[in-house]
Task: inverse folding
């Protein structure tokens, strides 16, 4: 079936000498993997590879056979040409980390247009704003709304966040955050992308990131911590 849709690049893997296998989160069909022959050959090879950088937003035309095999692009072009994400070291490192997080988090091969729209809007916001040091933290928490484990905030005034059930508790059980960690987590819950980016100190940002990674690990089967985590910590230290 010939499909025209927007697609966000989640990952790309070199195959043999000249080809790529590209995983995309599409607006029309959710997760799809594509085979790109001769990506590293020909006069426009650099241009081809540029399309498949992490979290690039594409407009594609593709043959979707929907047989569980690799699909094939018919046409590709940029839906949004990023102006700063690929040149700003903080943003590019953040995007590499987030693409790995999405690779391990989005597991259902089905349409989720609300998640697609949120990711597209968020990435465009990142590209067009200078102050973005909390972006990855806010994004990871917001994504849990679409994945089904956003914290229950009906009793957010309680002192401890219980990770397994995603609720706030008056008692510190074995799977609860400490009172200070819970305080930081509550601050994150109330943040928006355009909130004051200096609300957290560097060490607090590291603590919140660890909380989020642990929270994902508890709620997603097969979740792995991204290899780019250490690079992200280094850049933000």
Result:
């Amino acid at each position: 079936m010939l499909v025209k849709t927007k697609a966000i690049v989640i990952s790309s893997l070199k195959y043999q000498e000249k080809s790529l296998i590209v995983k995309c989160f599409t607006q029309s069909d959710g997760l799809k993997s594509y085979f790109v022959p001769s990506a590293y050959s020909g006069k426009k090879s650099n241009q081809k590879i540029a399309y498949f950088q992490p979290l690039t937003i594409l407009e594609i035309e593709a043959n979707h056979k929907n047989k569980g095999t690799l699909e094939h692009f018919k046409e590709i072009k940029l839906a949004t040409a990023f102006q700063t994400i690929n040149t700003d070291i903080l943003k590019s490192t953040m995007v590499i980390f987030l693409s790995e997080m999405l690779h391990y988090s989005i597991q259902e091969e089905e349409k989720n247009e609300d998640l697609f729209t949120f990711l597209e809007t968020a990435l465009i916001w990142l590209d067009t704003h200078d102050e973005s040091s909390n972006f990855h933290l806010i994004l990871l928490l917001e994504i849990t709304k679409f994945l089904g484990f956003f914290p229950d905030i009906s009793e957010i005034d309680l002192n401890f966040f219980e990770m397994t059930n995603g609720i706030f508790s008056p008692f510190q059980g074995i799977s609860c955050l400490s009172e200070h960690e819970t305080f930081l987590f509550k601050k994150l819950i109330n943040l928006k992308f355009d909130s004051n980016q200096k609300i957290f100190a560097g060490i607090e940002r590291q603590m919140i990131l660890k909380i989020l990674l642990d929270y994902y690990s508890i709620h997603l089967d097969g979740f792995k911590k991204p290899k780019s985590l250490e690079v992200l910590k280094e850049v933000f230290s």
